[in-house]
C-alpha cells in the first residue's frame, strides 16, 4: 500500500512538472505585453486578453502557415508509411542476398545526426532547384530508418502460415503485403504515423533552412517571427504556440490507446 502511494505521488509530481510549462504558455498568451515583462513575473493576468489570438492572425499569415504545415505533415506521413511498410515487408517476409547486411546499413543511418547531413542535403536540393518549395520540405522526410525497423519487428511477429495460405490461393507478394500484412499491422502503422506526424509538425530547423519566402513558412518557423533581436512579443508568441499545439493534443487524445498498444506490441514481438 505504501509503495503504491509512493508511486502515485511520484507520478503526480512528474505530471505536474510536465504540465506547468503548458499552463504557463496559456496564461502568458492571455496577458498584456507589459505584464509579461514584469519583474517579478505574475502568474495570472490582471485582465484576460483573448484579443491576442486574433492579433496573431493580424500580425502574420497564420492561416497560410497552418495550411503549409498540414500539407507538409500529410505528405511526409502518408508516403513514409507506404515506403517504410514496403521496405519492412521485404526485410521481414522475403529472402534475398545481403538482406541482413542491407538492413544493418539502413539502421546505421540512425547513428548519423541530422546536422551532419544538413549541408550535403542542402547542396543536393540546390542543384535540383527545390529550395523554397514543398519538394524540399517533404521529399527528404519521406523515408525513415526508424520506421523500417519499427514495422519490420511487428511484421516478423505475424504468423508466416498466413503468407503460405495466401500463396497457395495464388496471391502475389504485393497481395500478401496489401491484404494480409497491412490489415494485421494497424497498431504499428498508427504508432509510426503518430511519431511521424509529431516530428513533421514540430520540425523547425529543416523548414527554416529550406524556405525563404513567407508563402512557404510553416507554423514552427512562422511563430518564431514574434521573437525579435531586441524584444519578443511573448503574448502573441504564446498565443500562436497554443493554437499550433491544439491539433497535436486532439490527435493524441483520440489515438493514445492505439499508440500505447502499438508500442507495447513491439516489446512482446521478436
Sheet having the most strands:
none
- In terms of structural class, how would the helical and strand content be classed? mainly alpha
Measured between the Cα atoms of the first and last residue, the distance is 35 Å
Helix amount, in percent?
over 70%
Report on the structure:
- The protein folds into two domains: 1-48, no CATH class; 55-265, MetI-like fold, CATH 1.10.3720.10.
- The protein contains 14 helices and no strands.
- It has helices at residues 2-29, 33-36, 51-59, 62-93, 99-108, 114-128, 134-138, 145-156, 161-168, 173-184, 186-202, 205-210, 219-223, 234-268.
- Helix 9 crosses helix 10 and helix 11 packs antiparallel against helix 14 (234-268).
Helix/strand layout:
Layout: H1 2-29, H2 33-36, H3 51-59, H4 62-93, H5 99-108, H6 114-128, H7 134-138, H8 145-156, H9 161-168, H10 173-184, H11 186-202, H12 205-210, H13 219-223, H14 234-268
Helix pairs in contact: 1-14, 3-14, 4-8, 4-11, 9-10, 11-14
Defining traits:
14 helices; cell membrane; mainly alpha; 270 residues; globular; MetI-like fold
Task: Give the structure's gist in a few sentences.
With 270 residues, the chain is mainly α. It has helices at residues 2-29, 33-36, 51-59, 62-93, 99-108, 114-128, 134-138, 145-156, 161-168, 173-184, 186-202, 205-210, 219-223, 234-268. InterPro entries: MetI-like (IPR000515), MetI-like_sf (IPR035906).
